[in-house]
């Protein structure tokens, strides 16, 4: 297996703000390099990707991977491509929460990524000088809807989503079914279909906690991982609910617009669901700073808890856990609820979280090789099987429409949508920057440990947002 390079680059180590470093790098590039020529579209004929043809390319395609949970699968894909084509592919995986710092450290080096990832309009504006226009590529011709791209509205395609993802509360139905059938339960609820309001969820969760010995679990929820770098499920994903409701829902939220103002109008609702996690967990709240996402997913996989907040990507981790006690047929989603009027009509948080870019500062030959690799990955029989079975990505590509998936969370996502539930857009993509996320994560940890009052968490979140919003909007306007 190819090695995975893990970088942990912090602002303290660089001695300057991340924004200043990126600006300095960009200035240097502008002075030393001409803009790269438009990338040549791959020349595959028929249904045979160009990459499958004999290649004279002897360079290295480098992909800076955003998602640590698929690092092993990415390395398997790289090895398979090298086996089929002779072309070397190297995967580097950034540590959780450290992607942009790692990209900053790598982009001006001899090991600059040929393919990298952006996760928001903010990142697009920051890294635009390093992004090729993909509008004339074969890869873009596969895209079924421009909503899954980062584009300028005038034909330029800067980045393409490679995974349409959903998150909510993952449930082990075997455990909840045992609860609903218990003669000792104290609620009137009889199935997961009843749990589309916070009041219903809270009543069931607290009753399950009272019956945890009967149900054979250590707690209803897995650990709320608030260790630095592993807190993204709460400082980003869980924040989607209060942001969505404050900004008025899908029809009013402009994911390509400026960062809006934020007053934390639904702070108590956020606290509702967070407290439910903390107080009905396999661990005491004061231990959350010691727990990682992997810890909590193992707790779920081993049957120590009945529920865990995470997304469709989590099935890989659950299914790969040694000694797992949960089977595919037992796993499904319910939406995250927090006590807002109308939430009974809502489903999962669904959207495009990360987007692939090709580095415009790489040589034209390297850029073409990178695109041919992506064409192979999303259109060849081998590539499609690796995407669907190893990466477990649902993609926006027409070439993947016949792909076969074995992730039960995809089926659950489809069932919730088919029931007429409205998906939450990813309002959390408009969080100003990583600084705000890290600050919020730190405050949540202090709150969980009893070292910070909730009102202070709210005040800090609003004040920090105002500062980071102004910085980000000003930088994006340049």
Account of the 3D structure:
This protein is an alpha+beta fold. 41% of the residues lie in helices and 12% in strands. It is built from 19 helices and eleven strands. A hairpin with a 5-residue loop joins β4 and β5 (157-161). α18 (434-448) runs antiparallel to α19 (454-477). The radius of gyration is 23 Å and the shape is globular.
The largest pleated sheet is described as: 5 strands, mixed
Secondary structure category: alpha+beta
Low-confidence stretches: 1-52
Element string (H = helix, E = strand): HHEHEHEHHEEEHHHHHHHEHEEEHHHEHH
Summarize model confidence as the mean pLDDT.
88
* Residues in helices, as a percent range: 40-55%
> What is the first-to-last residue Cα distance?
43 Å
Strand content: 5-15%
Rounded to the nearest angstrom, the radius of gyration is 23 Å
**Helix run count:** 19
Q: Could you tell me the number of beta strands?
A: 11
Indicate the overall shape: globular
Key attributes of the depicted protein:
single chain, 478 residues, alpha+beta, 5-stranded mixed sheet, 4-stranded antiparallel sheet, 19 helices, 41% helix, 12% strand
Ordered list of secondary-structure elements with their pairings:
Elements: H1 11-14, H2 18-32, E1 60-65, H3 71-85, E2 88-93, H4 99-106, E3 115-118, H5 121-127, H6 138-141, E4 149-151, E5 157-161, E6 164-172, H7 173-181, H8 198-210, H9 212-215, H10 232-237, H11 240-246, H12 267-279, H13 293-301, E7 307-311, H14 314-319, E8 331-334, E9 346-352, E10 355-358, H15 364-379, H16 381-391, H17 408-418, E11 422-424, H18 434-448, H19 454-477
Parallel strand pairs: 1-2, 9-11
Antiparallel strand pairs: 3-10, 4-5, 5-10, 6-7, 6-8, 6-9
């Amino acid at each position: 297996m190819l090695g995975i390079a893990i970088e942990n680059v912090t602002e303290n180590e660089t001695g300057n703000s991340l924004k200043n470093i990126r600006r300095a790098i960009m200035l240097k590039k502008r002075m030393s390099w001409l803009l790269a020529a438009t990338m040549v579209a791959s020349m595959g004929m028929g249904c045979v990707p160009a990459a499958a043809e004999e290649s004279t390319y002897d360079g290295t395609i480098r992909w800076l991977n955003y998602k640590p949970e698929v690092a092993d699968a990415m390395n398997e894909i790289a090895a398979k491509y090298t086996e089929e084509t002779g072309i070397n592919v190297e995967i580097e995986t950034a540590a959780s929460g450290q992607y942009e710092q790692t990209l900053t450290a790598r982009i001006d080096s001899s090991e600059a990524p040929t393919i990298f990832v952006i996760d928001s309009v903010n990142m697009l504006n920051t890294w635009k000088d390093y992004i090729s226009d993909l509008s004339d590529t074969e890869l873009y011709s596969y895209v079924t809807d421009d909503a899954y791209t980062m584009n300028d509205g005038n034909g330029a395609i800067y980045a393409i989503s490679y995974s349409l993802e959903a998150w909510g509360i993952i449930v082990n139905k075997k455990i909840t079914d045992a609860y609903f059938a218990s003669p000792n339960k104290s609620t009137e609820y009889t199935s997961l279909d009843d749990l589309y309001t916070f009041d219903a969820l809270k009543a069931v969760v607290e009753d399950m906690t009272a019956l945890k010995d009967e149900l054979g679990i250590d707690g209803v929820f897995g650990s709320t991982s608030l260790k630095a770098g592993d807190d993204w499920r709460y400082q980003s994903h869980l924040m989607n609910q209060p942001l969505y409701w404050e900004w008025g829902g899908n029809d009013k939220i402009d994911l390509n617009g400026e960062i809006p103002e934020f007053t934390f109008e639904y702070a108590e609702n956020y606290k509702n669901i967070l407290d439910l996690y903390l107080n009905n967990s396999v661990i005491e709240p004061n231990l959350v700073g010691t727990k990682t996402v992997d810890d909590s997913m193992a707790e779920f996989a081993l049957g120590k808890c009945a529920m865990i907040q995470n997304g469709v990507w989590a099935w890989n981790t659950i299914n790969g856990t040694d000694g797992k006690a949960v089977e595919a047929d037992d796993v499904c989603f319910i939406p995250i609820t927090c006590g807002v009027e109308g939430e009974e009509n809502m489903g999962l948080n669904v959207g495009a979280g990360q987007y692939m870019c090709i580095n415009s500062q790489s040589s034209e030959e390297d850029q073409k090789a990178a695109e041919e690799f992506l064409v192979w990955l999303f259109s060849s029989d081998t590539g499609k099987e690796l995407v669907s079975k190893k990466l477990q990505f649902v993609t926006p590509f027409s070439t993947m429409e016949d792909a076969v998936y074995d992730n039960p969370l995809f089926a659950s996502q489809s069932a919730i949508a088919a029931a007429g539930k409205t998906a939450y857009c990813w309002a959390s993509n408009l969080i100003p920057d990583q600084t705000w996320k890290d600050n919020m994560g730190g405050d949540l940890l202090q709150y969980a440990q009893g070292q910070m009052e909730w009102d202070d968490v709210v005040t800090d979140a609003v004040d920090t947002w105002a500062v980071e919003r102004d910085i980000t909007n000003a930088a994006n306007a340049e």
